Amino acid sequence: MCNIKMNNDKETCNFARANNFRSAFRPNVCGGSTSRPCSGSGDPNGNPNGSGQLATDGNDVGGDSYEKDVKTKILQSSLQHVPRHGWSRDTVAAGAEELGYPDTVHGLFRDPGAELALYFYSASNDSLSRLLRDGTLTLPTESKAELTAFLTVAIKTRLLMLQPYLNQWPQAIALLSKPSNAPQALSNLMTLVNDVCYYAGDRSIDTRWYTRRIGLATIYKSSELHLLQDGSQGYDDTWKFVRRAVEECVKLDTMLESNAQLAKDVVTASVSTAKNILGLTWNR
Description:
Ubiquinone biosynthesis protein; about 0% strand; mainly alpha; transit peptide
């Protein structure tokens, strides 16, 4: 086993969050064939959205910065109330009250429940990214078996972060599938798969950049839905599902390495399938 070390040069990724499906699948957005694709607030260490910080539109100055900090603190405090109130305005109000703010402060949020779910998703992505960067999760070698094991463990680790909120997660999925929330939800999903692909050693600059991320995103979302219905001990059925799906994905990737036209065809077919699985079938 060996560790893939990140370049010591810090890079700043200054680009807006994805506003449509195509922009969420843009390779090498930070420049260079070895740079880590990233999105969000441009943390200099490569962490998207700065440890769960709320995404902004780039006009964040003065009072806006203070408001964002207050909102982040409220969302952090609100997570412990999700099992009781779900992803709702009442949950955010309870989080605000705990910090000494009036419960009416939920007026700061356009869609309190959805913004809480988006915050949790982003913060969980950051937690996984730290585990990958710090080497807590063993990184793969050139072996396909090691790559399969790494991807399986990475997906399992991220899915387990949902465990405290499994009963309430279907509500979060419904909120994040709304047209007004889905672009940021998709951006968060692509940040997740970008991180995993990067630490798996992916430096592709061809159509495999797309197929790998679409494939991994589809596996993650399918596994998430499987987990919500899993009654097996220790979610054993879900982990077997993840392993099989990853194995098939790695086999397909091997085939695409020697067939560029097949790779293009797979990208075209996979985009429609992935959008359906991700709940992105509305007309835009």
